[in-house]
Protein backbone atom coordinates (compact mmCIF):
# COMPACT_ATOMS: atom_id res chain seq x y z
CA UNK A 1 0.00 0.00 0.00
CA UNK A 2 2.79 2.39 0.95
CA UNK A 3 4.53 1.54 -2.31
CA UNK A 4 1.38 2.19 -4.31
CA UNK A 5 1.00 5.58 -2.62
CA UNK A 6 4.62 6.40 -3.36
CA UNK A 7 4.03 5.47 -6.98
CA UNK A 8 0.83 7.49 -7.27
CA UNK A 9 2.18 10.70 -5.78
CA UNK A 10 4.34 11.81 -8.71
CA UNK A 11 1.46 11.15 -11.10
CA UNK A 12 -0.91 13.32 -9.09
CA UNK A 13 1.74 16.02 -8.89
CA UNK A 14 2.28 15.82 -12.64
CA UNK A 15 -1.44 16.16 -13.35
CA UNK A 16 -1.67 19.08 -10.95
CA UNK A 17 1.19 20.93 -12.64
CA UNK A 18 -0.36 20.21 -16.03
CA UNK A 19 -3.77 21.47 -14.92
CA UNK A 20 -2.29 24.56 -13.25
CA UNK A 21 -0.03 25.49 -16.15
CA UNK A 22 -2.80 25.28 -18.77
CA UNK A 23 -4.79 27.71 -16.62
CA UNK A 24 -2.00 30.11 -15.60
CA UNK A 25 -0.45 30.39 -19.05
CA UNK A 26 -3.83 30.32 -20.78
CA UNK A 27 -2.89 27.54 -23.17
CA UNK A 28 -5.80 27.02 -25.56
CA UNK A 29 -7.42 23.56 -25.26
CA UNK A 30 -6.77 22.71 -28.93
CA UNK A 31 -3.03 22.94 -28.15
CA UNK A 32 -3.03 21.23 -24.78
CA UNK A 33 -6.28 20.36 -23.05
CA UNK A 34 -6.20 20.28 -19.25
CA UNK A 35 -6.56 16.85 -17.58
CA UNK A 36 -10.11 17.62 -16.43
CA UNK A 37 -11.16 18.25 -20.05
CA UNK A 38 -9.64 14.94 -21.14
CA UNK A 39 -11.42 13.06 -18.37
CA UNK A 40 -14.66 14.84 -19.20
CA UNK A 41 -14.23 13.80 -22.81
CA UNK A 42 -13.86 10.16 -21.81
CA UNK A 43 -17.17 10.29 -19.95
CA UNK A 44 -18.91 12.42 -22.57
CA UNK A 45 -19.24 9.62 -25.09
CA UNK A 46 -18.25 6.42 -23.33
CA UNK A 47 -20.03 4.16 -25.81
CA UNK A 48 -18.07 5.47 -28.79
CA UNK A 49 -14.78 5.24 -26.92
CA UNK A 50 -15.57 1.78 -25.59
CA UNK A 51 -16.46 0.57 -29.05
CA UNK A 52 -13.22 1.80 -30.55
CA UNK A 53 -11.23 0.57 -27.57
CA UNK A 54 -12.53 -2.94 -28.11
CA UNK A 55 -11.50 -2.80 -31.76
CA UNK A 56 -7.97 -1.71 -30.89
CA UNK A 57 -7.71 -4.16 -28.04
CA UNK A 58 -8.68 -7.06 -30.28
CA UNK A 59 -6.08 -5.99 -32.84
CA UNK A 60 -3.39 -5.65 -30.19
CA UNK A 61 -4.07 -8.97 -28.51
CA UNK A 62 -4.50 -10.92 -31.74
CA UNK A 63 -1.26 -9.46 -33.08
CA UNK A 64 0.54 -10.16 -29.84
CA UNK A 65 -0.60 -13.77 -29.50
CA UNK A 66 0.07 -14.45 -33.16
CA UNK A 67 3.59 -13.08 -32.73
CA UNK A 68 4.13 -14.99 -29.49
CA UNK A 69 3.07 -18.35 -30.91
CA UNK A 70 4.79 -17.82 -34.25
CA UNK A 71 7.97 -16.32 -32.81
CA UNK A 72 8.38 -19.01 -30.21
CA UNK A 73 7.62 -21.88 -32.60
CA UNK A 74 10.01 -20.60 -35.25
CA UNK A 75 12.61 -19.98 -32.55
CA UNK A 76 12.40 -23.60 -31.46
CA UNK A 77 12.56 -24.81 -35.07
CA UNK A 78 15.60 -22.65 -35.84
CA UNK A 79 17.39 -23.77 -32.68
CA UNK A 80 16.94 -27.39 -33.58
CA UNK A 81 17.58 -27.23 -37.30
CA UNK A 82 20.94 -26.14 -38.60
CA UNK A 83 19.50 -25.87 -42.10
CA UNK A 84 16.62 -23.65 -41.02
CA UNK A 85 19.04 -21.49 -39.09
CA UNK A 86 21.20 -20.99 -42.17
CA UNK A 87 18.15 -20.28 -44.31
CA UNK A 88 16.75 -17.71 -41.90
CA UNK A 89 19.97 -15.98 -40.92
CA UNK A 90 19.90 -13.32 -43.68
CA UNK A 91 16.22 -12.66 -42.97
CA UNK A 92 16.93 -12.25 -39.29
CA UNK A 93 19.66 -9.71 -39.99
CA UNK A 94 17.46 -7.75 -42.41
CA UNK A 95 14.56 -7.92 -39.96
CA UNK A 96 16.71 -6.17 -37.37
CA UNK A 97 17.49 -3.32 -39.76
CA UNK A 98 14.21 -2.79 -41.60
CA UNK A 99 11.74 -0.39 -39.95
CA UNK A 100 8.75 -2.70 -39.64
CA UNK A 101 6.26 0.17 -39.19
CA UNK A 102 7.18 1.34 -42.68
CA UNK A 103 5.53 -1.80 -44.03
CA UNK A 104 2.13 -0.62 -42.74
CA UNK A 105 0.98 1.09 -45.96
CA UNK A 106 1.88 -2.04 -47.89
CA UNK A 107 -0.25 -4.21 -45.63
CA UNK A 108 -3.17 -1.83 -46.05
CA UNK A 109 -2.87 -2.25 -49.81
CA UNK A 110 -2.69 -6.01 -49.48
CA UNK A 111 -5.28 -6.65 -46.83
CA UNK A 112 -7.71 -3.73 -46.96
CA UNK A 113 -8.81 -1.51 -44.08
CA UNK A 114 -10.38 -4.04 -41.73
CA UNK A 115 -8.92 -5.67 -38.62
CA UNK A 116 -6.65 -7.98 -40.56
CA UNK A 117 -3.90 -5.58 -41.68
CA UNK A 118 -3.62 -4.06 -38.17
CA UNK A 119 -3.25 -7.48 -36.61
CA UNK A 120 -0.62 -8.35 -39.18
CA UNK A 121 1.31 -5.13 -38.59
CA UNK A 122 1.13 -5.58 -34.82
CA UNK A 123 2.29 -9.18 -35.15
CA UNK A 124 5.11 -8.31 -37.54
CA UNK A 125 6.57 -5.76 -35.14
CA UNK A 126 6.11 -7.97 -32.08
CA UNK A 127 7.37 -11.11 -33.78
CA UNK A 128 11.10 -10.51 -34.05
CA UNK A 129 12.02 -9.73 -30.45
CA UNK A 130 10.24 -12.94 -29.42
CA UNK A 131 11.94 -14.97 -32.13
CA UNK A 132 15.43 -13.65 -31.43
CA UNK A 133 15.15 -13.97 -27.67
CA UNK A 134 13.66 -17.46 -27.90
CA UNK A 135 16.68 -18.58 -29.92
CA UNK A 136 19.04 -16.86 -27.47
CA UNK A 137 17.28 -18.43 -24.49
CA UNK A 138 17.16 -21.94 -25.88
CA UNK A 139 20.84 -21.75 -26.73
CA UNK A 140 21.73 -20.40 -23.29
CA UNK A 141 21.42 -23.83 -21.67
CA UNK A 142 24.56 -24.78 -19.76
CA UNK A 143 26.48 -27.12 -22.09
CA UNK A 144 27.59 -29.20 -19.11
CA UNK A 145 23.99 -29.80 -18.10
CA UNK A 146 23.25 -30.87 -21.65
CA UNK A 147 26.27 -33.22 -21.51
CA UNK A 148 25.06 -34.58 -18.22
CA UNK A 149 21.67 -35.27 -19.78
CA UNK A 150 23.39 -36.89 -22.74
CA UNK A 151 25.46 -39.08 -20.45
CA UNK A 152 22.24 -40.65 -19.17
CA UNK A 153 20.93 -41.03 -22.71
CA UNK A 154 18.27 -38.34 -22.42
CA UNK A 155 16.33 -37.79 -25.61
CA UNK A 156 16.26 -34.42 -27.38
CA UNK A 157 12.70 -34.05 -26.26
CA UNK A 158 13.64 -34.61 -22.62
CA UNK A 159 16.50 -32.13 -22.88
CA UNK A 160 14.12 -29.61 -24.42
CA UNK A 161 11.44 -29.87 -21.73
CA UNK A 162 13.72 -30.30 -18.73
CA UNK A 163 16.64 -28.04 -19.61
CA UNK A 164 16.28 -25.79 -22.64
CA UNK A 165 12.73 -24.58 -22.15
CA UNK A 166 13.14 -23.60 -18.48
CA UNK A 167 16.47 -21.91 -19.26
CA UNK A 168 14.84 -19.89 -22.02
CA UNK A 169 11.99 -18.51 -19.91
CA UNK A 170 13.95 -15.61 -18.37
CA UNK A 171 14.85 -14.59 -21.93
CA UNK A 172 11.44 -15.15 -23.50
CA UNK A 173 9.25 -13.42 -20.92
CA UNK A 174 10.89 -9.99 -21.04
CA UNK A 175 10.66 -10.23 -24.83
CA UNK A 176 6.94 -10.95 -24.50
CA UNK A 177 6.51 -7.85 -22.39
CA UNK A 178 8.29 -5.72 -24.97
CA UNK A 179 6.45 -7.46 -27.81
CA UNK A 180 3.09 -6.67 -26.22
CA UNK A 181 3.95 -2.98 -26.16
CA UNK A 182 5.23 -3.15 -29.72
CA UNK A 183 1.93 -4.65 -30.83
CA UNK A 184 0.21 -1.60 -29.35
CA UNK A 185 2.45 0.54 -31.54
CA UNK A 186 1.70 -1.72 -34.50
CA UNK A 187 -2.04 -1.52 -34.08
CA UNK A 188 -1.93 2.30 -33.76
CA UNK A 189 0.25 2.72 -36.82
CA UNK A 190 -2.05 0.43 -38.75
CA UNK A 191 -5.04 2.53 -37.76
CA UNK A 192 -3.26 5.76 -38.64
CA UNK A 193 -2.52 4.55 -42.13
CA UNK A 194 -6.00 3.39 -43.03
CA UNK A 195 -8.99 2.55 -40.88
CA UNK A 196 -12.50 3.52 -39.90
CA UNK A 197 -12.37 2.26 -36.34
CA UNK A 198 -10.13 2.03 -33.32
CA UNK A 199 -8.33 4.37 -30.97
CA UNK A 200 -5.77 5.28 -33.63
CA UNK A 201 -8.64 6.24 -35.91
CA UNK A 202 -10.09 8.45 -33.14
CA UNK A 203 -6.72 10.18 -32.78
CA UNK A 204 -6.66 10.94 -36.50
CA UNK A 205 -10.25 12.25 -36.30
CA UNK A 206 -9.34 14.36 -33.28
CA UNK A 207 -6.32 15.64 -35.17
CA UNK A 208 -8.10 16.74 -38.35
CA UNK A 209 -10.98 18.31 -36.39
CA UNK A 210 -8.62 20.02 -33.95
CA UNK A 211 -10.54 18.08 -31.30
CA UNK A 212 -7.46 17.71 -29.13
CA UNK A 213 -9.58 16.56 -26.18
CA UNK A 214 -10.56 13.46 -28.17
CA UNK A 215 -6.97 12.87 -29.25
CA UNK A 216 -5.84 12.95 -25.66
CA UNK A 217 -8.71 10.77 -24.45
CA UNK A 218 -7.75 8.07 -26.97
CA UNK A 219 -4.11 8.47 -26.02
CA UNK A 220 -4.91 7.96 -22.33
CA UNK A 221 -6.85 4.79 -23.07
CA UNK A 222 -4.07 3.37 -25.25
CA UNK A 223 -1.61 4.12 -22.48
CA UNK A 224 -3.82 2.34 -19.95
CA UNK A 225 -4.05 -0.72 -22.22
CA UNK A 226 -0.27 -0.76 -22.53
CA UNK A 227 0.19 -0.40 -18.78
CA UNK A 228 -2.26 -3.22 -18.08
CA UNK A 229 -0.50 -5.63 -20.46
CA UNK A 230 2.90 -4.62 -19.09
CA UNK A 231 1.70 -5.23 -15.56
CA UNK A 232 0.15 -8.64 -16.23
CA UNK A 233 3.19 -10.00 -18.07
CA UNK A 234 5.44 -8.41 -15.46
CA UNK A 235 3.66 -10.43 -12.77
CA UNK A 236 4.20 -13.68 -14.64
CA UNK A 237 7.79 -12.70 -15.31
CA UNK A 238 8.41 -12.08 -11.63
CA UNK A 239 7.24 -15.59 -10.77
CA UNK A 240 9.37 -17.07 -13.54
CA UNK A 241 12.49 -15.16 -12.52
CA UNK A 242 12.01 -16.27 -8.94
CA UNK A 243 11.99 -19.89 -10.05
CA UNK A 244 14.12 -20.08 -13.14
CA UNK A 245 16.59 -17.28 -12.47
CA UNK A 246 17.01 -14.27 -14.68
CA UNK A 247 18.77 -11.01 -15.15
CA UNK A 248 21.21 -12.65 -17.53
CA UNK A 249 18.83 -12.53 -20.45
CA UNK A 250 19.88 -9.83 -22.89
CA UNK A 251 16.98 -8.42 -24.73
CA UNK A 252 17.15 -7.62 -28.39
CA UNK A 253 14.48 -5.27 -29.66
CA UNK A 254 13.86 -3.38 -32.84
CA UNK A 255 10.71 -1.72 -34.06
CA UNK B 1 30.34 -46.55 9.62
CA UNK B 2 26.78 -47.69 9.94
CA UNK B 3 25.39 -44.23 9.80
CA UNK B 4 24.80 -44.87 6.13
CA UNK B 5 22.03 -47.16 5.22
CA UNK B 6 23.47 -47.97 1.83
CA UNK B 7 23.67 -51.56 3.00
CA UNK B 8 25.24 -54.65 1.68
CA UNK B 9 22.15 -56.06 0.06
CA UNK B 10 21.77 -52.94 -1.89
CA UNK B 11 25.29 -53.18 -3.12
CA UNK B 12 24.93 -56.80 -4.14
CA UNK B 13 21.95 -55.76 -6.14
CA UNK B 14 23.92 -53.01 -7.77
CA UNK B 15 26.61 -55.40 -8.83
CA UNK B 16 24.03 -57.53 -10.51
CA UNK B 17 23.19 -54.55 -12.62
CA UNK B 18 26.82 -54.24 -13.61
CA UNK B 19 27.06 -57.82 -14.64
CA UNK B 20 24.14 -60.20 -14.95
CA UNK B 21 25.24 -63.31 -13.08
CA UNK B 22 27.20 -64.52 -10.10
CA UNK B 23 29.14 -61.48 -9.31
CA UNK B 24 28.10 -60.41 -5.90
CA UNK B 25 31.17 -61.65 -4.16
CA UNK B 26 34.13 -60.10 -2.54
CA UNK B 27 33.15 -56.77 -1.22
CA UNK B 28 32.15 -55.69 2.29
CA UNK B 29 34.27 -52.79 3.25
CA UNK B 30 37.20 -54.58 4.79
CA UNK B 31 40.83 -53.96 4.00
CA UNK B 32 40.46 -55.85 0.79
CA UNK B 33 42.65 -53.58 -1.28
CA UNK B 34 43.61 -54.43 -4.80
CA UNK B 35 44.25 -58.11 -4.33
CA UNK B 36 40.98 -59.10 -5.95
CA UNK B 37 41.39 -58.14 -9.57
CA UNK B 38 38.58 -58.87 -11.97
CA UNK B 39 39.32 -60.31 -15.36
CA UNK B 40 36.85 -58.41 -17.47
CA UNK B 41 37.81 -54.75 -17.74
CA UNK B 42 35.09 -52.21 -17.03
CA UNK B 43 36.82 -49.66 -19.22
CA UNK B 44 39.17 -50.59 -22.00
CA UNK B 45 40.91 -48.21 -24.40
CA UNK B 46 43.06 -49.60 -27.15
CA UNK B 47 45.29 -47.32 -29.25
CA UNK B 48 42.84 -44.47 -28.87
CA UNK B 49 43.75 -41.25 -30.62
CA UNK B 50 41.90 -37.96 -30.89
CA UNK B 51 42.74 -35.33 -33.45
CA UNK B 52 40.87 -32.04 -33.62
CA UNK B 53 40.62 -30.35 -36.99
CA UNK B 54 41.48 -26.66 -36.83
CA UNK B 55 41.88 -23.94 -39.42
CA UNK B 56 45.63 -24.48 -39.54
CA UNK B 57 47.23 -27.78 -38.58
CA UNK B 58 45.18 -30.51 -36.93
CA UNK B 59 45.78 -30.71 -33.20
CA UNK B 60 46.54 -34.10 -31.70
CA UNK B 61 44.83 -34.17 -28.31
CA UNK B 62 45.51 -37.82 -27.58
CA UNK B 63 48.19 -39.79 -29.38
CA UNK B 64 47.80 -43.46 -28.53
CA UNK B 65 46.13 -44.17 -25.26
CA UNK B 66 46.00 -47.69 -23.91
CA UNK B 67 44.38 -48.28 -20.58
CA UNK B 68 42.09 -50.61 -18.77
CA UNK B 69 40.11 -50.23 -15.58
CA UNK B 70 38.93 -53.37 -13.90
CA UNK B 71 35.54 -53.76 -12.40
CA UNK B 72 35.33 -52.36 -8.88
CA UNK B 73 38.70 -50.74 -9.30
CA UNK B 74 39.42 -47.11 -8.45
CA UNK B 75 41.71 -45.66 -11.09
CA UNK B 76 42.94 -42.10 -11.25
CA UNK B 77 44.38 -40.31 -14.20
CA UNK B 78 46.81 -37.53 -13.32
CA UNK B 79 48.63 -35.27 -15.69
CA UNK B 80 49.52 -31.67 -16.42
CA UNK B 81 46.71 -29.43 -17.62
CA UNK B 82 46.06 -29.74 -21.31
CA UNK B 83 47.29 -33.33 -21.51
CA UNK B 84 43.89 -34.63 -22.50
CA UNK B 85 42.75 -36.09 -19.17
CA UNK B 86 39.25 -34.75 -19.55
CA UNK B 87 39.21 -35.84 -23.19
CA UNK B 88 39.60 -39.42 -21.97
CA UNK B 89 36.58 -39.01 -19.76
CA UNK B 90 34.55 -37.54 -22.58
CA UNK B 91 35.54 -40.47 -24.78
CA UNK B 92 34.55 -43.02 -22.18
CA UNK B 93 31.20 -41.34 -21.66
CA UNK B 94 30.72 -41.25 -25.43
CA UNK B 95 30.29 -37.48 -25.50
CA UNK B 96 33.20 -37.47 -27.94
CA UNK B 97 34.13 -39.99 -30.62
CA UNK B 98 37.75 -41.10 -31.01
CA UNK B 99 39.56 -40.49 -34.30
CA UNK B 100 41.20 -43.88 -34.05
CA UNK B 101 41.33 -46.89 -31.79
CA UNK B 102 38.73 -48.75 -29.83
CA UNK B 103 36.86 -48.17 -26.57
CA UNK B 104 34.94 -50.80 -24.66
CA UNK B 105 32.82 -50.33 -21.58
CA UNK B 106 31.82 -53.56 -19.85
CA UNK B 107 32.33 -55.38 -23.11
CA UNK B 108 30.21 -52.98 -25.12
CA UNK B 109 30.90 -49.93 -27.20
CA UNK B 110 30.95 -46.61 -25.35
CA UNK B 111 27.83 -45.47 -27.20
CA UNK B 112 25.98 -48.65 -26.26
CA UNK B 113 27.11 -48.24 -22.66
CA UNK B 114 25.85 -44.66 -22.66
CA UNK B 115 22.46 -45.77 -23.92
CA UNK B 116 22.34 -48.37 -21.17
CA UNK B 117 23.17 -45.68 -18.60
CA UNK B 118 26.27 -47.54 -17.47
CA UNK B 119 27.96 -44.54 -15.92
CA UNK B 120 27.27 -41.67 -13.60
CA UNK B 121 29.26 -38.53 -14.37
CA UNK B 122 30.47 -35.88 -11.92
CA UNK B 123 31.93 -32.72 -13.41
CA UNK B 124 34.27 -30.17 -11.90
CA UNK B 125 31.54 -27.60 -11.58
CA UNK B 126 28.56 -29.17 -9.93
CA UNK B 127 26.12 -28.65 -12.73
CA UNK B 128 22.72 -28.48 -11.10
CA UNK B 129 19.45 -27.30 -12.50
CA UNK B 130 18.92 -24.07 -10.56
CA UNK B 131 15.13 -24.39 -10.53
CA UNK B 132 15.18 -27.84 -8.95
CA UNK B 133 15.79 -28.50 -5.26
CA UNK B 134 18.64 -30.74 -4.10
CA UNK B 135 16.46 -33.82 -4.02
CA UNK B 136 14.81 -33.00 -7.32
CA UNK B 137 18.26 -32.73 -8.87
CA UNK B 138 19.09 -36.20 -7.55
CA UNK B 139 15.78 -37.52 -8.87
CA UNK B 140 16.34 -36.03 -12.31
CA UNK B 141 18.29 -38.99 -13.80
CA UNK B 142 15.70 -41.43 -12.48
CA UNK B 143 12.94 -39.47 -14.16
CA UNK B 144 14.85 -39.17 -17.41
CA UNK B 145 15.77 -42.84 -17.48
CA UNK B 146 12.35 -43.87 -16.24
CA UNK B 147 13.47 -45.93 -13.25
CA UNK B 148 11.19 -46.20 -10.27
CA UNK B 149 12.38 -46.15 -6.68
CA UNK B 150 11.81 -49.91 -6.52
CA UNK B 151 14.41 -50.49 -9.20
CA UNK B 152 17.24 -48.83 -7.32
CA UNK B 153 19.00 -49.82 -4.12
CA UNK B 154 18.79 -46.44 -2.44
CA UNK B 155 16.13 -43.78 -2.98
CA UNK B 156 17.29 -40.16 -3.50
CA UNK B 157 16.55 -39.15 0.09
CA UNK B 158 18.77 -41.92 1.36
CA UNK B 159 21.55 -40.96 -1.04
CA UNK B 160 21.41 -37.36 0.15
CA UNK B 161 21.67 -38.64 3.69
CA UNK B 162 24.66 -40.73 2.67
CA UNK B 163 26.48 -37.69 1.27
CA UNK B 164 25.73 -35.81 4.47
CA UNK B 165 22.91 -33.60 3.25
CA UNK B 166 20.06 -34.79 5.42
CA UNK B 167 17.86 -31.80 6.09
CA UNK B 168 18.97 -29.95 2.97
CA UNK B 169 16.73 -31.85 0.55
CA UNK B 170 14.42 -29.00 -0.31
CA UNK B 171 17.07 -26.30 -0.65
CA UNK B 172 17.90 -24.90 -4.06
CA UNK B 173 21.39 -24.83 -5.58
CA UNK B 174 21.83 -21.12 -4.90
CA UNK B 175 21.26 -21.84 -1.20
CA UNK B 176 23.98 -24.51 -1.09
CA UNK B 177 27.75 -24.06 -0.81
CA UNK B 178 30.08 -25.34 -3.50
CA UNK B 179 30.98 -28.39 -1.45
CA UNK B 180 27.33 -29.18 -0.81
CA UNK B 181 26.52 -28.86 -4.49
CA UNK B 182 29.31 -31.30 -5.27
CA UNK B 183 27.80 -33.71 -2.73
CA UNK B 184 24.50 -33.43 -4.56
CA UNK B 185 26.30 -34.10 -7.82
CA UNK B 186 27.80 -37.28 -6.36
CA UNK B 187 24.42 -38.41 -5.05
CA UNK B 188 22.93 -37.68 -8.47
CA UNK B 189 25.61 -39.72 -10.24
CA UNK B 190 24.79 -42.64 -7.94
CA UNK B 191 21.03 -42.20 -8.09
CA UNK B 192 20.33 -44.61 -10.92
CA UNK B 193 22.92 -47.09 -9.62
CA UNK B 194 25.32 -47.16 -12.56
CA UNK B 195 28.17 -49.68 -12.39
CA UNK B 196 30.75 -47.06 -13.32
CA UNK B 197 31.44 -43.63 -11.87
CA UNK B 198 33.27 -41.10 -14.06
CA UNK B 199 34.64 -38.11 -12.19
CA UNK B 200 36.27 -35.15 -13.92
CA UNK B 201 38.28 -33.20 -11.33
CA UNK B 202 35.26 -33.20 -9.05
CA UNK B 203 37.00 -31.56 -6.12
CA UNK B 204 39.12 -29.03 -8.00
CA UNK B 205 36.80 -26.10 -7.39
CA UNK B 206 36.36 -26.39 -3.62
CA UNK B 207 38.58 -25.24 -0.77
CA UNK B 208 41.18 -27.53 0.80
CA UNK B 209 39.18 -28.51 3.87
CA UNK B 210 36.05 -29.25 1.87
CA UNK B 211 38.14 -31.23 -0.58
CA UNK B 212 39.49 -33.39 2.23
CA UNK B 213 35.98 -34.05 3.50
CA UNK B 214 34.68 -34.90 0.05
CA UNK B 215 37.60 -37.28 -0.45
CA UNK B 216 36.75 -39.18 2.74
CA UNK B 217 33.13 -39.22 1.67
CA UNK B 218 34.06 -40.69 -1.70
CA UNK B 219 36.29 -43.30 -0.03
CA UNK B 220 33.42 -44.24 2.25
CA UNK B 221 31.00 -44.59 -0.61
CA UNK B 222 33.50 -46.59 -2.60
CA UNK B 223 34.10 -48.92 0.32
CA UNK B 224 30.42 -49.68 0.41
CA UNK B 225 29.40 -49.79 -3.20
CA UNK B 226 32.70 -50.68 -4.90
CA UNK B 227 31.68 -48.97 -8.09
CA UNK B 228 34.28 -48.87 -10.79
CA UNK B 229 35.67 -45.35 -10.62
CA UNK B 230 37.61 -43.46 -13.24
CA UNK B 231 38.82 -40.33 -11.54
CA UNK B 232 40.48 -37.44 -13.34
CA UNK B 233 42.59 -35.09 -11.25
CA UNK B 234 45.71 -32.94 -11.33
CA UNK B 235 46.17 -33.37 -7.58
CA UNK B 236 48.79 -36.07 -7.00
CA UNK B 237 48.05 -36.41 -3.27
CA UNK B 238 44.38 -36.87 -3.99
CA UNK B 239 45.11 -39.56 -6.56
CA UNK B 240 47.35 -41.52 -4.17
CA UNK B 241 44.88 -41.14 -1.35
CA UNK B 242 41.93 -42.49 -3.32
CA UNK B 243 43.13 -44.91 -5.98
CA UNK B 244 44.03 -48.51 -6.49
CA UNK B 245 46.04 -47.51 -9.52
CA UNK B 246 47.26 -44.26 -11.00
CA UNK B 247 47.82 -43.56 -14.67
CA UNK B 248 50.21 -40.68 -15.26
CA UNK B 249 49.78 -38.83 -18.52
CA UNK B 250 52.37 -36.94 -20.47
CA UNK B 251 51.92 -33.47 -21.92
CA UNK B 252 50.45 -33.14 -25.38
CA UNK B 253 50.05 -35.22 -27.32
CA UNK B 254 48.51 -37.10 -24.44
CA UNK B 255 49.72 -40.59 -23.71
CA UNK B 256 49.79 -42.80 -20.65
CA UNK B 257 53.37 -42.37 -19.46
CA UNK B 258 53.38 -44.58 -16.39
CA UNK B 259 51.13 -46.82 -14.37
CA UNK B 260 51.60 -46.90 -10.62
CA UNK B 261 49.91 -49.37 -8.30
CA UNK B 262 48.83 -47.91 -5.00
CA UNK B 263 48.99 -50.76 -2.51
CA UNK B 264 48.11 -48.76 0.56
CA UNK B 265 45.72 -50.70 2.81
CA UNK B 266 42.01 -49.92 2.77
CA UNK B 267 39.88 -48.53 4.20
CA UNK B 268 42.10 -45.50 4.18
CA UNK B 269 41.83 -42.71 6.68
CA UNK B 270 43.48 -39.31 6.62
CA UNK B 271 46.23 -40.74 8.79
CA UNK B 272 47.52 -42.57 5.73
CA UNK B 273 49.07 -39.30 4.66
CA UNK B 274 51.72 -39.53 7.33
CA UNK B 275 52.88 -42.98 6.30
CA UNK B 276 56.19 -43.30 4.45
CA UNK B 277 54.58 -45.53 1.79
CA UNK B 278 52.11 -42.79 0.97
CA UNK B 279 54.85 -40.19 0.69
CA UNK B 280 57.00 -42.51 -1.40
CA UNK B 281 54.12 -43.07 -3.83
CA UNK B 282 53.46 -39.35 -4.15
CA UNK B 283 57.15 -38.78 -4.87
CA UNK B 284 57.05 -41.52 -7.47
CA UNK B 285 54.14 -39.89 -9.27
CA UNK B 286 55.76 -36.47 -9.10
CA UNK B 287 58.95 -37.93 -10.57
CA UNK B 288 57.09 -39.19 -13.61
CA UNK B 289 55.27 -35.89 -13.98
CA UNK B 290 58.46 -33.81 -13.87
CA UNK B 291 60.17 -36.17 -16.28
CA UNK B 292 57.56 -35.76 -18.99
How would you describe what is shown here?
The complex is a heterodimer of chains A (255) and B (292). Chain A is mainly α and 255 residues long. Helices cover 81% and strands 0% of the residues of chain A. Chain A has ten helices and no strands. In chain A, helix 2 crosses helix 10 and helix 3 runs antiparallel to helix 8. Chain A starts with a helix and ends in an 11-residue tail after the last helix. Chain B has 292 residues and is an alpha/beta fold. The interface between A and B is medium-sized, with 18 and 22 residues.
Summarize the structure.
The complex is a heterodimer of chains A (255) and B (292). Chain A has 255 residues and is mainly alpha-helical.
Topology diagram in text:
The complex is a heterodimer of chains A (255) and B (292).
Chain A: H1 2-24, H2 35-44, H3 46-80, H4 82-97, H5 104-111, H6 115-139, H7 143-151, H8 156-193, H9 199-208, H10 212-244
Helix pairs in contact in A: 2-10, 3-4, 3-6, 3-8, 3-9, 5-6, 5-8, 6-8, 8-9, 8-10, 9-10
Chain B: H1 8-18, E1 41-52, E2 59-70, E3 74-78, H2 85-92, E4 100-105, E5 108-109, H3 110-115, E6 119-122, H4 134-145, H5 156-162, H6 178-191, E7 196-200, H7 208-225, E8 228-233, H8 236-242, E9 245-250, E10 255-261, H9 276-291
Parallel strand pairs in B: 3-8, 3-9, 6-7, 7-8
Antiparallel strand pairs in B: 1-2, 1-4, 4-5, 9-10
Helix pairs in contact in B: 4-5, 4-6, 5-6, 8-9
